[in-house]
């Protein structure tokens, strides 16, 4: 039964091949894709029963080159998050991509990306994670350059350069790690922490190299500029990049590396977390300041993502239980909030073809459902009680205080104010400003787009009002690692 954990990885890949070689009409293709992503979630639900037990060595050449998959609580948390949001994105994409064109090619790489992201989730060692991490770059590249314009190709090149540059740093750290440990398997507490009298300089080099490498996909400043550039992609792709697949895979990889390879004790002894926290503080503040200066709706959300990812990274480097819970919780909360915000912006673009904040005055009266969902998600991202954003930021603030660093809660507070300054003007422009005279009245987006927007907004609200089940699950992970 161990081989069941291979199905969520290779079933979407098989589905992508079927889509590529068979000639389906639109209805057949859409039916196949939505059936596939729902079946994938069912398969992951089945895997719940094997938590901590199922593992498969798919291919083992030696201790270094070992394609190994394993189920643990971290992989379950990440795979469920990805799979649920992928279903909503699929429904949304079926309608949205009609005006983007090249739908068949989009759904081939869209489905393939799901399988690769599952490979990252269930990777049992660093080399397996690295291979699927690289495959993720290759699978999402055609999605970034989907429109084929000069700007899209330029953004795609930047995406590849940054991603492969980060991967080179990861490979360097991985080779150093293997030279010391002869083992790359993920072990709670870390591999390096079990080595007596280790060379702390080498340990520090391993940590920094891999943190910066994985930090590229996590939009760590100064490696963040590929992310706003990728906004030329269709909105469903932006949602995948910013909320689900790419940036969250970067965050997930950083958690694996920090707590399952290096180990919290080694990071503290080398003071590696202090060095990385400088980059993270800059990321949080710079992302917010840059978002303030963007008039384009998608670019404002893009720089917001840079800032919010810094919150999650802060939770990783503070190295205490409260911060870790806050970081993982914000990984989930940011995913559901940001995908809703992008869906709302996509609905505005689809219906009105407007992309700038100054163009959406009074649109709240014409698209009330879309803009109310945007407003609720904005309040959640700011962190106003009792939203889900407040819950995760509360834990992050507690983590900062537990570490004796009052500066970090202060930075979170400043960033929350900046988040309000760049999101609330969009809401006020939509609801409290009048549109231009003679402007054509628009209606809400089609139901295939509106239902996912409303559904995920409900999830956003529920995660704020009833956070305890998720917090309890994350605390179980934290107990194993701290």
From TrEMBL:
* Principal location class: membrane
The family database entries (InterPro entries) matched by this protein are listed as: ComplexI-like_HydComp, ND/Mrp_TM, Proton_antipo_N
Going by the UniProt record, its keywords in alphabetical order are: Cell membrane, Membrane, Oxidoreductase, Transmembrane, Transmembrane helix
Residue ranges constituting the NADH:quinone oxidoreductase/Mrp antiporter transmembrane domain according to the UniProt record? 123-419
Pfam families under this entry?
Proton_antipo_M (PF00361), Proton_antipo_N (PF00662)
The record's subcellular location field reads: Cell membrane; Membrane
Q: Does the keyword Oxidoreductase apply?
A: yes
Q: Any idea where the NADH-Ubiquinone oxidoreductase (complex I) chain 5 N-terminal domain is?
A: 65-107
Indicate how the chain sits in the lipid bilayer. Answer: Multi-pass membrane protein
Q: Which residues cross the membrane?
A: 6-24, 31-48, 74-94, 106-124, 159-181, 201-220, 240-262, 274-292, 331-349, 369-386, 406-432, 453-474
Q: Does the keyword Membrane apply?
A: yes
Sequence similarity: Belongs to the CPA3 antiporters (TC 2.A.63) subunit A family.
Name of this chain's protein = Monovalent cation/H+ antiporter subunit D family protein
Q: Which organism is it from?
A: Clostridium ganghwense
């Amino acid at each position: 039964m161990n081989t069941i954990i291979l199905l969520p990885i290779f079933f979407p890949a098989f589905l992508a091949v079927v889509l590529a070689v068979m000639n389906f009409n639109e209805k057949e293709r859409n039916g196949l894709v939505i059936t596939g992503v729902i079946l994938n979630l069912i398969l992951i639900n089945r895997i719940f029963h094997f938590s901590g037990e199922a593992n498969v060595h798919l291919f083992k050449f030696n201790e270094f080159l070992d394609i190994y998959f394993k189920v643990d609580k971290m992989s379950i948390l990440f795979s469920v998050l990805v799979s649920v949001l992928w279903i909503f994105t699929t429904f949304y994409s079926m309608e949205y991509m009609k005006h983007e064109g090249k739908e068949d090619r989009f759904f081939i790489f869209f489905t393939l990306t799901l399988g690769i992201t599952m490979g990252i989730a269930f990777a049992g060692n660093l080399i397996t994670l690295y291979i699927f991490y690289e495959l993720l770059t290759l699978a999402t590249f055609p999605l970034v350059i989907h429109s084929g314009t000069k700007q899209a190709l330029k953004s795609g090149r930047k995406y590849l350069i940054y991603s492969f540059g980060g991967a080179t740093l990861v490979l360097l750290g991985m080779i150093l790690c293997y030279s010391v440990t002869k083992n790359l398997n993920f072990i709670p507490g870390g591999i390096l922490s079990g080595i007596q009298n280790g060379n702390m300089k080498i340990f520090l080099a391993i940590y920094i190299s891999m943190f910066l490498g994985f930090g590229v996909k996590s939009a760590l400043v100064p490696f963040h500029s590929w992310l706003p550039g990728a906004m030329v992609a269709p909105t469903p792709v932006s949602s995948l990049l910013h909320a689900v697949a790419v940036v969250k895979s970067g965050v997930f990889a950083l958690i694996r590396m920090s707590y399952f390879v290096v180990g919290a004790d080694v990071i503290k002894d080398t003071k590696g977390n202090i060095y990385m926290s400088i980059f993270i503080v800059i990321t949080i503040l710079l992302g917010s300041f840059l978002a303030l200066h963007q008039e384009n709706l998608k670019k404002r959300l893009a720089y917001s993502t840079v800032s919010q990812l810094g919150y999650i990274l802060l939770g990783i480097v503070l190295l205490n239980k409260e911060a870790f819970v806050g970081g993982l919780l914000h990984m989930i909360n940011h995913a559901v909030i940001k995908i809703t915000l992008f869906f709302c912006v996509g609905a505005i673009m689809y219906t009105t073809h407007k992309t700038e904040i100054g163009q959406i005055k009074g649109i709240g009266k014409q698209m009330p459902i879309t803009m109310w969902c945007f407003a609720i998600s904005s309040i959640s991202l700011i962190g106003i009680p009792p939203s889900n954003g407040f819950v995760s930021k509360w834990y992050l603030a507690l983590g900062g205080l537990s570490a004796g660093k009052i500066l970090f809660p202060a930075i979170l507070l400043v960033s929350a104010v900046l988040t309000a300054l760049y999101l609330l003007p969009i809401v006020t422009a939509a609801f409290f400003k009048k549109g231009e005279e003679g402007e054509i009245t628009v209606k809400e987006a089609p139901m295939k787009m509106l239902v996912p927007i409303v559904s995920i907004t409900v999830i956003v609200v529920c995660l704020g009002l009833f956070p305890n089940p998720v917090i309890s699950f994350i605390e179980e992970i934290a107990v194993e690692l701290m």
